Amino acid sequence: MNKALVYARLKNGSGVVDSLLPMMTDQGYYASLMTDHDTNRRCDSYCTDTLFGTMGAINEALLFSNTGEIEVLPAQPPEWKAGAVYGLMARTRVEVKQLVWDLVKRGIKVTLHSISNANKIKLKAGIPWFKATVNGCETPALADWFGKHVHMTLESEEDVTVGFDLNGES
């Protein structure tokens, strides 16, 4: 589990999957996703590593946040060509109400909901993108030490939807 979490922080999606898959066997955990650190199951000493660690690693692969920063799909495993996740809370006092991606259709859509007023954030995607829209209107891309991103000021209780176009066409 710990390796999967580290790989997610290192933005290595393949490493996340390679670290999680060995744990996902019948002998690696109980049906409740608890482990006992004893493959013979003699001790019945329960551990929450698999239960919480799996979700933590997946969440870290799909969403990174820090004060004033959100990155969607920072460690997206190549096998996860399309998907969606709902209701992740970022460290920016912003709920990621919806994150949907489809690499075949070449797009990412993320809906943000701030719980505080005048919440300034930088939003970026971990996959190269060419154009971004905020609530359907094209917005300029900025670049600095954080990388290519969109800067926004979110207001409390308002949903903002950002689309990242992964196509190189204008």
The CATH class label is Mainly Beta
Low-confidence stretches: none
Order of helices and strands: HHHEEEEEEEEEEEE
Number of folding domains? 1
Q: What fold name stands as the CATH topology?
A: Immunoglobulin-like
Q: Can you give the helix content as a percent range?
A: 10-25%
Supply Rg: 18 Å
How many helices? The count is 3
The termini sit apart by 42 Å
Structural class: alpha+beta
Task: Provide the CATH superfamily.
Answer: Golgi alpha-mannosidase II
Strand content: 35-45%
How confident overall, as mean pLDDT?
87
CATH architecture label name: Sandwich
Protein name: Alpha fucosidase A-like C-terminal domain-containing protein
GO molecular function, one term: alpha-L-fucosidase activity
Domain Alpha fucosidase A-like C-terminal: 65-114
Organism: Paenibacillus methanolicus
Explain what this protein looks like in three dimensions.
By secondary structure, this protein is of the alpha+beta class. The protein has a single domain (2-165), classed as Golgi alpha-mannosidase II (Immunoglobulin-like). It is built from three helices and twelve strands; from the N terminus they run H-H-H-E-E-E-E-E-E-E-E-E-E-E-E. It has helices at residues 2-9, 13-20, 49-62; strands spanning 63-66, 69-72, 82-85, 88-90, 94-102, 107-114, 119-125, 131-134, 137-139, 142-144, 147-154, 159-165. The strands form two sheets. Strands 3, 4, 5, 6, 8, 9 and 12 form a seven-stranded antiparallel sheet that branches. A five-stranded mixed sheet has the order 1-2-7-11-10. Strand 5 (94-102) and strand 6 (107-114) form a beta hairpin. Helix 1 (2-9) runs antiparallel to helix 2 and helix 1 packs parallel to helix 3. This is Alpha fucosidase A-like C-terminal domain-containing protein. InterPro entries: AFCA-like_C, Glyco_hydro_b. Residues 65-114 form the Alpha fucosidase A-like C-terminal domain.
